[in-house]
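I have a small job for you when you get a moment. Would you make up a two-line entry for one protein for me to read? No commentary is needed, just the two lines. Write everything out right here, beneath this request.
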Amino acid sequence: MRKVYQSAAEALAGQLRDGMVIMSGGFGLCGIPEALIEAVLESGARDLTVISNNAGVDGIGLGRLLETRQIKKMISSYVGENKLFAEQYLGGELELEFNPQGTLAERIRAGGAGIPAFFTKTGVGTMIAEGKEIRSFGGEDYVMETGLFADIALVHAHTGDHEGNLVYRKTARNFNPDMATAARMTVAEVEHLVAPGEIDPDHIHTPGIFVSRIVHVPNPVKHIEKRTVRERKSEEA
């Protein structure tokens, strides 16, 4: 089975449609599948529901799909770095399903594990629990959250082989491994593409059985979401 494709557009050809649910890995701008997001933009698919920790920033990552009004709904945790997101949400153009960050991660993990729902204390007594089942265990209240499963998961990995085995690097690992298991089809962009057998089996984060398609994206731009610096001390100090 051929898994390696020549471009992000080719990897997603024939797989995108209006109204579908897409998971997109990353945390802030770290580990986002930017090339695959651009391919979604170019496809013109609309009314998308996107599951992602955040929505990129203005003009980068998922922020590009907000610019073209291709996203109808976001299922997210933190979206505070995107002005356009706020404008569309407050203007009634964009639906939003907020999640505590740990709950979002567990909903994705549960979806990949075939777990339809679970109970958590996070959010009990807040607006997060409104309309959801509350159940008591050991005298404590818990709110029921449902697992998440997408039509397509778009992930970014540091290294991948032709069989689809993936390795993530440091913070770019974030949501990517869980999302890779929680979709009908997972498409991965990798910075380094190696031959089968070159990745130590003990170092594999996502086994190739979860990955349907791969595109090699060498030397991707590593955006800095917020640059924080301090004044340089003088030599006399």
